[in-house]
Design goal:
This protein is α/β, with parallel strands linked by helices and 439 residues long. The protein is built from 13 helices and 17 strands. The protein binds iron/sulfur cluster (2 copies).
């Protein structure tokens, strides 16, 4: 019997709801007439525009750069004219500064020729990743070049590729593993060269046997005496794809408190990010389009789509034949960690991985009640925190005192809220606590 790797503490088993889109091959959504590109696409500093109104831009041209702080440049997802430097609806903030491009549909598409990365040294390769505006495309969007430059005090021996995709509904990584396995393995080898490391483990949950097979074949074919890439199947348990849990599942090493994965000799990248790194280095293609899962019973067509950054939800809905009467809630991200949105004017960013149009039967609308102190949330928390205490303190107006319960170690996975029989909105309480408490 195959050994399935997993983390020891907490975790839950929500219905995976992936059947809706798992068999939908990646399809390209046509570029809309206008793209709204938000200047702050990721964690860290927002970009400063390098273009002005009425400028013409080509596909892939840099339109924003980070002058100070942690960040990466921004590129035009399509050729066109700068129509507006304004404000756009944002998935988490109310509004955010953006650049609007009026797309020139007549402009010829960029050609991306294959180049030989093996002759480049690590410093050059990191520079290419940074210049391509690469960020982690599965989460908060941490700039990839920073992850590829761990502190010299942390010797790295293992690269982990995150192919767990444990959030329900989402199948964008799954489809990339099926359709672009060679590119992912080539991307892994580029990262291994940058890190000066031989071993890469690709962690994939056991509910994706086809991906395990295809990626396993690509890994065997791509492995050399210099680079050893292998696939390890993971137990199906949420949040298997969270960085700390994944590291512990696959290596048995525990990342302490606020330490980085590099403190235990590991660097983690998502499989989709790794494919994008391949495109940046081998094809010279900046990050300006995303593979996004659109799912749920509230939209007429579901699938996995290649979409230009800056495309609005309304354009995606139109391509998918509109929403239907069953639509009750729209979520950007997965149902466990995503955010409700109320506007279709929101443009997608480099970190958008899925958009869910959920019907009433797909969501739980039971009103919440008082904590019955059952302790289920403690058992479910993979970080060993006390979510009930954090929530009780917030309700009592004492959010600033929640540091003692490790509020900043919470990565908002939602396991606690998922198991709570009183349906308490524990993650929302925790977010409020983080605003009040000081680290
Ligand atoms: S949301 Fe935070 S407190 Fe709740 S289970 Fe996840 S890590 Fe623990
Ligand atoms: S699971 Fe809900 S009801 Fe039970 S202790 Fe935690 S917060 Fe209270």
């Amino acid at each position: 019997m195959t050994t399935l790797f997993t983390f020891p503490k907490g975790g839950v088993h929500p219905p995976d709801a992936k059947k809706l889109t798992a068999d939908c091959p990646i399809e390209t959504i046509p570029t809309p007439d206008e793209l709204e590109i938000i200047l702050g696409q990721h964690i860290g500093a927002p970009c400063t525009p390098t273009v002005e109104r009425r400028d013409t831009v080509s596909e892939g041209q840099m339109i924003g750069e980070v002058k100070k702080g942690l960040g990466v440049p921004l590129h035009a997802p399509a050729a066109g004219t700068i129509k507006l430097m304004g404000m756009s609806d944002h998935p988490m903030q109310v509004k955010a500064p953006s650049i609007t491009i009026k797309v020139d549909h007549e402009a010829s598409a960029n050609e991306h020729n294959v180049s030989d990365w093996s002759q480049r040294d690590a410093k050059e390769l990191v520079g290419l990743v940074r210049d391509a505006g690469m960020v982690g495309i599965g989460g908060a969007g941490f700039p990839s070049h920073v992850k590829l430059s761990p502190p010299p005090s942390d010797p790295i021996d293992t690269l982990i590729l995150n192919g767990a995709e444990c959030e329900p509904y989402i199948t964008s990584d799954y489809r990339q593993m099926l359709e672009m396995s060679t590119e992912i393995v080539e991307g892994a080898k580029i990262i291994l060269k940058i890190l000066g490391v031989k071993n890469c483990i690709i962690g994939i949950e056991a509910n994706k046997p086809e991906a395990i097979k295809v990626m396993g074949e690509a890994a065997a074919e791509g492995s050399t005496s210099e680079f050893n890439v292998q696939v390890s199947p993971l137990e199906v348990k949420y949040p298997q794809g969270s960085e700390k849990q994944l590291i512990q599942s696959l290596t048995g090493r525990k990342v302490k408190g606020f330490a980085l994965p590099s403190s235990v000799g590991v660097v983690v990248h998502n499989v989709g990010t790794t494919r994008a790194i391949y495109e940046a280095v081998v094809l010279g293609k900046p990050l300006y389009e995303k593979i996004v899962t659109v799912s749920g019973l509230g939209i007429n067509k579901v699938g996995n789509f290649k979409i230009k950054v800056g495309t609005k939800l309304s354009d995606i809905v139109e391509y998918c034949g509109g929403t239907n009467d069953r639509l009750s809630k729209i979520i950007m991200g997965g149902p466990m960690m995503g955010f409700n949105v109320s506007s279709l004017d929101i443009p997608i960013t480099k970190t958008t991985g899925s958009i869910l149009f959920l019907a009433e039967e797909e969501i739980d609308t039971t009103p919440h009640s008082n904590c019955i102190r059952c302790g289920w949330c403690l058992e479910a928390c993979p970080m060993g925190l006390e979510p009930k205490e954090i929530a009780i303190h917030v309700e009592a107006g004492k959010g600033e005192d929640t540091n003692q319960f490790g509020v900043f170690e919470c990565f908002e996975c939602g396991c606690c809220a998922y198991v709570c029989p009183a349906k308490r909105p524990l993650v929302q309480f925790i977010r409020l606590a983080k605003m009040k408490a000081k680290r």
